[in-house]
Design goal:
alpha/beta; 11% strand; 3 strands
Length: 169
């Protein structure tokens, strides 16, 4: 796994469309999976970046502003066709949801494909220790591993068996 992170210093930098296209082309040639965090605002000027995507993962939360923005984005993406869209509901806690699943589904025009549980303690531990979240055995770690395995076409049973026979834990 490789990560091309944001610059360590904030500053205004213009990156041309051609430069981004070249970077994505190289990444696609080198890696089986390329994930791009496109931020929280869809820039219709740069929508072409999604043209070669096979799947777009819309990450949202179960709050009124997030659901409204997600609904708008889903409508725009559906109107233009294109890559498959999967919806990931982040920080989900069924017990303390003020908005029930029926209303979430109605707002998104369909049920979310993935629900990542709210797990503040595990995320905080990951941030403070700089260890990958998926190395733990918390509810959020298990949900992310399950999603990743599904995306990569691996069964959870195969991964668990491999883990049991590992020399390093």
């Amino acid at each position: 796994m490789s990560i091309l992170a944001a610059p360590s210093e904030l500053g205004l930098t213009y990156v041309s469309v051609d430069a981004i296209d070249k970077l994505l082309k190289v990444a696609r040639e080198e890696f089986d999976y390329v994930v791009v965090d496109a931020g929280s605002v869809l820039d219709l000027q740069r929508k072409h970046l999604f043209d070669s995507s096979t799947t777009i993962y819309l990450v949202t939360q179960a709050g009124i502003p997030e659901l409204r923005n997600s609904h708008r984005l889903i409508s725009q993406l559906s109107a233009t066709g294109g890559p498959r869209l999967e919806i990931l509901l982040n920080r989900y806690d069924a017990r303390s949801q003020e908005i029930d699943e029926e209303h979430i589904t109605k707002a998104l025009t369909r049920p979310p494909d993935w629900k990542i549980p709210n797990d503040y303690a595990a995320v905080r531990h990951m941030q403070n220790t700089a260890t990958p979240l998926t190395e733990g055995n918390s509810p959020i770690s298990r949900a992310i591993r399950k999603m990743t395995q599904s995306i990569c076409g691996q069964s959870a049973d195969v991964q668990e068996k491999k883990k049991k026979f590992s020399l390093f834990g």
